[in-house]
Amino acid sequence: MSDCLFCRIANKELGTEVLMENDYFMAFSDINPKAPVHVLIIPKKHFQDITDIEGDIIAKLPDFIKELSEKLGVSERGFRIITNKGKDGGQIIFHTHFHLLAGKDLGDLIKE
Ligand code: AMP
Ligand code: ZN
């Protein structure tokens, strides 16, 4: 059994409801949502963070996000993708993941 929480989710050991998956990625709801729609996308294979993930896997992410956002009904109004890396980036789970936030006007974090 893996020590990594998101590997355990990827291996379907925790009973987390899977919203969408393919051979490379899986999507499930964040347990502590920060927006009306807050979904996490993880690669099924373990990588620590965005700088660690294999290029041929990350190349498949946009198609997954496109299909997921359509499935969630947020593709037209839009959404934000965030990934945290390291301590200052606020990363608390060291299996890389992408937050998809949507369902309200998210404002402009860059200017805050
Ligand atoms: P980060 O700060 O980018 O590492 O974010 C980790 C995210 O994982 C947080 O938004 C948590 O709410 C979320 N999280 C932690 N445990 C779980 C879980 N078991 N299922 C879904 N989301 C989780
Ligand atoms: Zn992992």
Describe this structure in words.
The chain is α+β, with helices and mostly antiparallel strands. It has one domain (5-102): HIT-like (HIT family, subunit A), CATH 3.30.428.10. 20% of the residues lie in helices and 21% in strands. It contains 3 helices and 5 strands. It has helices at 5-10, 55-58, 61-72, and strands at 20-21, 25-29, 37-43, 79-82, 98-102. It has a 5-stranded antiparallel β-sheet with strand order 1-2-3-5-4, covered by helices on one side. Bound molecules: adenosine monophosphate (AMP) and zinc ion. Residues 4, 6-7, 46, 95 line the site of zinc ion (ZN). Residues 5, 16, 28, 30-32, 40, 84, 90-93 line the site of adenosine monophosphate.
What tags apply to this protein structure?
HIT family, subunit A; binds zinc ion; five-stranded antiparallel beta sheet; globular; alpha+beta; binds adenosine monophosphate; 112 residues; 20% helix
Strands of the widest sheet, in order across it, are 1-2-3-5-4
Global mean pLDDT? 95
- How helix-rich are the residues, as a percent range? 10-25%
Q: Given this structure, which CATH class is correct? A: Alpha Beta
Report how far the terminal alpha carbons are from each other: 41 Å
Task: Give the name of the CATH architecture.
Answer: 2-Layer Sandwich
